[in-house]
Write a structure and sequence with these properties.
- By secondary structure, this protein is an alpha+beta fold.
- Helix content is 58%, strand content 10%.
- A four-stranded antiparallel beta sheet has the order 2-1-4-3.
- It is elongated and about 90 Å long.
- The protein starts with a helix and ends with a helix.
Length: 307
């Protein structure tokens, strides 16, 4: 009889609830949670409420109503409670996304508080002289070209010969200034890039065609077909219509740009110094890694495990 009463007591919902409550309390204590008033108090002050309203206004385009602001505050409280509980349970540990976000916010904080010294006029002029090529007008080219592919022609020699033949055809046509002179568009091989370029810098063209192509443009006559000029793709018959020389900048003309760049570099230097100062507070120990055995060997082992 006592056993049956005990079984009924154990099955009682109130008893089950009490057991679960005790278990939750024990887990909370094991996880480091403390049921003190301060850690369990969520305060939403006036500044936070205004910030929530400002964020709403920036997204929606109007101020929230009283009911909407109450909802925003409720959401904020819910989020704050979830964040605290997650941190209390250690859910933020070993989470790559959380770690990166915290590091990013800390980096922003350092950058906001790092102060760079004002740039003196003498230092500004020296900065300009050291970076003068950044502010001058670069050399520019306006051109059109006919491309000949070594792959399509079978060899470099055949492509160069075909380019020379195309050059003779274009020269025989005479001036291509008239709109009806479109022979150059019908000659050559298909090309992935454009056939005409206007006021492109030497750097731009070098990125597109390679440095040898730009070097070849330096000696071409203006206003007539010439070449062949070799590029990273093959050979080109080129008509250069404009070649402007690089022009140095005057300090007073670009002073605003120079100041902006100098201040940005000074801020970057201040940020680097702040990061280095922060790092000096820590003792960093990096264990030596054998690339072959620790990394390549591990990958090989994983690959060997695959069926």
């Amino acid at each position: 009889m006592p056993d049956s009463r005990l079984r009924r007591f154990v099955r009682d919902p109130l008893f089950v609830f009490l057991v679960i409550g005790v278990g939750v309390f024990a887990l909370d204590r094991m996880a480091g949670g403390v049921f003190d008033a301060e850690s369990r108090t969520v305060v939403v002050n006036r500044a936070q409420a205004i910030r929530l309203a400002d964020l709403w206004s920036a997204q929606i385009g109007r101020l929230p109503t009283v009911a909407e602001l109450d909802s925003l505050i409720d959401d904020h409280v819910r989020e704050e409670i979830l964040v605290r509980e997650a941190a209390r349970m250690g859910l933020d540990q070993d989470d790559t996304i959380v770690r990166r976000r915290l590091a990013q916010k800390m980096s922003f904080l350092i950058e906001d508080t790092a102060v760079a010294d004002a740039v003196a006029e003498a230092d500004l002029k020296q900065y300009f002289e050291e970076n003068a090529e950044r502010y001058g007008e670069p050399q520019r080219f306006t051109l059109r070209h006919v491309y000949v592919s070594p792959d399509r022609r079978g060899s470099d020699e055949e492509a160069a010969r075909a380019a020379s033949d195309i050059l003779e055809q274009l020269r025989a046509e005479g001036s291509d200034a008239a709109p009806e002179n479109t022979l150059w568009r019908r000659l050559g091989d298909p090309f992935m890039l454009r056939r005409e370029y206007g006021r492109r810098t030497a750097e731009d063209l070098a990125e597109l065609f390679g440095g040898a192509f730009v070097d070849g443009l330096e000696t071409l006559p203006i206003g007539e077909w010439a070449g062949p000029v070799e590029s990273a793709y093959g050979y080109h018959v080129v008509r250069l219509s404009v070649r402007t020389e690089a022009q140095p900048a005057m300090f007073e003309d670009v002073r605003r740009r120079v100041l902006d760049d100098a201040q940005r570099d000074a801020r970057d230097a201040a940020n680097r110094a702040a990061h280095e100062s922060l790092r000096e507070r820590y003792r960093v120990i990096i264990e030596e890694i054998d690339f072959v055995s620790d990394l390549e060997g591990g990958e090989a082992a994983e690959a060997g495990d695959e069926p």
